[in-house]
Amino acid sequence: MARKPLDYEELNENVKKTQYAVRGELYLRASELQKEGKKIIFTNVGNPHALGQKPLTFPRQVVALCQAPFLLDDPNVGLMFPADAIARAKHYLSLAPGGLGAYSDSRGIPGIRKEVADFIQRRDGYPSDPELIYLTDGASKGVMQMLNTIIRNERDGILVPVPQYPLYSAAIALFGGSLVPYYLEEEANWGLDFVNIRQTVSEARSKGITVRAMVIINPGNPTGQCLSEANIKELLQFCYHENLVLLADEVYQQNIYQDERPFISARKVLFDMGPPLSREVQLVSFHTVSKGFWGECGQRGGYFEMTNLPPKTVDEIYKVASIALSPNVPGQIFMGVMVNPPKPGDISYLKFSSESKSILESLRRRARMMTDGFNSCRNVVCNFTEGAMYSFPQIRLPPRAIEAAKRAGKAADVFYCLKLLEATGISTVPGSGFGQKEGVFHLRTTILPAEEDFPAIISSFKNFNDSFMAQYEGYSRM
C-alpha cells in the first residue's frame, strides 16, 4: 500500500530533526508520574505563574476592562476598578477601534508600538522608530520570524551560544540552516571567549558554511550570567568585522540579582560606540511580557526592534508578518502596559511598585539560595545566577554512573535527571538539552518555586545527590 503524505516516513525531514529538550523526555516522564498521583515540582520551564507567582494587579485590571468593555458603562465600575486602570483601558480601546476581537495591523497596534519606542528611548537614551518595531506573540515568534528570513539554505550558519536555549537549535533545524555553536566559558562565569569564537567561525567557513548571524542571550538562559559592557563592545566589533547580524535575546532584562553588572542593551552600547559601527551593524533585539516580574507567559506578548536594516528588508519582514494577519491583541496590550507602567503619583503606582519589588526581591533571595544549595552538595559546582530565572549546576558524575547510563541507553545527565525525578518529583532539564562540552554534565532548574518551598526542595535534592554519589562512587558521608 502506498505511503500517505502524513505517514512518518513522508514528513518534512527538517521537522524530524527538530528537538526541544525543555518539553522532552524528562517532562513527558514527569507528566506520567503526575498522572499516577506523584507530586511533581516542574522546574523545567520558566513559567512563573504555573509555580505560584501572582499576576500583577494593574495590567490584569486594564486587560479585563478591555476584554469586557461593557463594564466601562456600568455606573459602579469606579467601585471595582481604580480610575487610572479605567483611563488606560479606554486609551487602549481607542487605539483598537474593533476591540480585542478584531485583527490589528500585522506589525501590531501603532499606538502601542509608539509606547515601546518611548520605552526604548528612556532605557537607552537614543530615539527609537515605531516603524521598526514589530509586536509578536511572545519573543519566540519574533526569533523564528528573523531566523526564517536570514536562513536561505543548509549552508547558512547561525552562531549560537552553548549552552543555549533550545528554541535556537530547534528553529535553525526547522528552517534548514546550520547551527554553529560557540562555547561559553563556565570557569569565567559563562563569559564570551573571542579567541574560541573566531576559531569556530573559521572552522565553519572551512566546511563551506556562510556564517550570517550571531545570537546572544543576555541575561543568559540557561546560564544566568549578565554580560559586561566591555563584553558587549567586543561582541559588536566582532559582528562588524565578520559582517554578522546580531540577534540580541534580551527577554530577561528585568531579572537582575546583583548590582555589579546591571543590564545594558546591545543597542545602547552600539549607539554609544558611534560610527561606523552604530550605522552599519545590523541588530535585531527581542523582549517579552513572559519574564521579568510579570511572568505573563500565557499572554504571548513580545516585540522585536530592527536597527540598521534596509527598508526593502523591512518590507519583506512585514510581508511575512502579514501571513499571520495579526499578533494577538490582548498580548499587545500587556506589552503596552509593561513598557508604560503606572508612574509616581498615579493611583495604582504604590500597589504596582510594591508587587513588582516584592517579586524581584524574592527572586534575588531564591537565586542565592539555589546557588548556595547546589554548591553545598557533593560533586556539584554552580556559578551564581546573576540574572534570568535559572541555575545551571555542573554535576561531576562518577565513572560508574556514566557506565550505568550507557548500559541503560541514556545520556549520563539524562540518567541522573530521571533518577532525581523518580526519587524527589523534581523535574529538571539535562544539560545535554542545551549543549555542553564533551564529558561535562549539567542540569537546568528554574529558581521559580515558591520561596517557602526552597528549603525542602534543596534538602530533597541534597539527600538524593548524596545517595546517588554514594551508590556510584562508593562514597558515604559519616
TrEMBL record:
Protein source organism: Urochloa decumbens
Identification of the protein by name: Alanine aminotransferase 2
UniProt function note: Transfer of C3 units between the cytosol of mesophyll and bundle sheath cells to maintain a nitrogen-carbon balance in the C4-dicarboxylic pathway.
UniProt record similarity statement: Belongs to the class-I pyridoxal-phosphate-dependent aminotransferase family. Alanine aminotransferase subfamily.
E.C. number: 2.6.1.2, 2.6.1.4, 2.6.1.44
Subunit structure: Homodimer.
GO molecular function: alanine-glyoxylate transaminase activity; glycine:2-oxoglutarate aminotransferase activity; L-alanine:2-oxoglutarate aminotransferase activity
Database matches in InterPro entries: ALAT1/2-like, Aminotransferase_I/II_large, PyrdxlP-dep_Trfase, PyrdxlP-dep_Trfase_major, PyrdxlP-dep_Trfase_small
One Pfam assignment: Aminotran_1_2
Catalytic activity reported: glyoxylate + L-alanine = glycine + pyruvate; glycine + 2-oxoglutarate = glyoxylate + L-glutamate
